[in-house]
């Protein structure tokens, strides 16, 4: 739903499908509802099972759902670069002026980064956390954090920090996370795999 909504918002969806789809804001809201539900159901199951440290079960599912929700926020942030519509929050006006729209872009992108970092923390804190840090899921999360920092770097010049606790610019942080993702991805799948190629593409941007 998130990718579909992003394509609709950015005008990348084939015209023959447009009439059969809801609006981009509606698609984003549906995606957010489903992912929040998945996160909450997993947390409830973990609480019921006493299973918060099960390395190959609910903990991994919670991390994956959290990362998926973070990716949806990134897609919504990207959509707001082209579409004057607030994609997620019902208490905001549908049509935004440029100032509100760019505030939206920054808020959604930062929430995406925080969400992916939280997902990585969940994986790292499980019983098999060290092994899980060597998985495809973790490589994808590293890549996603770097990707969103790179996106923010298009708007925030070097020397301007994301928040008061950071001293590195988004472009520097993007490179750091993408380099970590590249090292892990090459270890997992080699240099010629499409996932490795995707990280290399992001590093060239």
- Helical fraction: 55-70%
SSE order, one letter for each helix or strand? HHHHHHHHH
Low-confidence stretches: none
End-to-end Cα distance: 26 Å
* Global mean pLDDT: 82
How would you sum up the major sheet?
none
| Structure classification | mainly alpha
Tally of contiguous helical segments: 9
Strand portion:
under 5%
Globally, the shape reads globular
What Rg is obtained from the alpha carbons, in whole angstroms? 18 Å
Strand runs, count: 0
Structure description:
The protein is mainly α and 205 residues long. Helices cover 68% and strands 0% of the residues. It contains 9 helices and no strands. Helix 3 runs antiparallel to helix 4, helix 5 (98-124) packs antiparallel against helix 7 and helix 8 runs antiparallel to helix 9 (194-204). The protein is globular and about 45 Å long. The model has no long low-confidence stretch (mean pLDDT 82).
How is this fold's topology laid out?
Elements (H helix, E strand, L loop, with lengths): L1 H8 L5 H4 L5 H26 L8 H22 L18 H27 L4 H4 L3 H18 L16 H20 L4 H11 L1
Helix pairs in contact: 1-3, 1-4, 3-4, 4-5, 4-7, 5-7, 7-8, 8-9
């Amino acid at each position: 739903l998130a990718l579909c909504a992003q394509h609709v918002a950015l005008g990348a969806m084939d015209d023959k499908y447009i009439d059969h789809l809801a609006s981009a804001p509606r698609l984003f809201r549906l995606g957010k509802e489903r992912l929040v539900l998945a996160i909450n159901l997993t947390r409830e199951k973990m609480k019921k099972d006493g299973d918060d440290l099960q390395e190959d079960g609910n903990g991994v599912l919670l991390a994956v759902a959290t990362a998926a929700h973070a990716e949806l926020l990134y897609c919504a942030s990207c959509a707001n670069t082209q579409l004057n519509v607030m994609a997620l929050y019902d208490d905001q006006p549908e049509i935004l002026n440029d100032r509100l729209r760019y505030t939206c872009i920054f808020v959604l992108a930062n929430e995406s980064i925080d969400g992916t970092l939280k997902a990585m923390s969940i994986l790292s804190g499980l019983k098999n956390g060290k092994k899980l840090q060597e998985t495809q899921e973790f490589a994808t999360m590293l890549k996603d954090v770097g990707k969103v920092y790179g996106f923010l770097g298009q708007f925030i010049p070097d020397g301007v920090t994301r928040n008061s606790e950071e001293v590195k610019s988004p472009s520097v942080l993007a490179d750091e996370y993408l380099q970590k993702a590249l090292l892990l991805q090459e270890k997992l799948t080699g240099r010629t795999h499409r996932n490795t190629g995707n990280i290399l593409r992001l590093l060239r941007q």
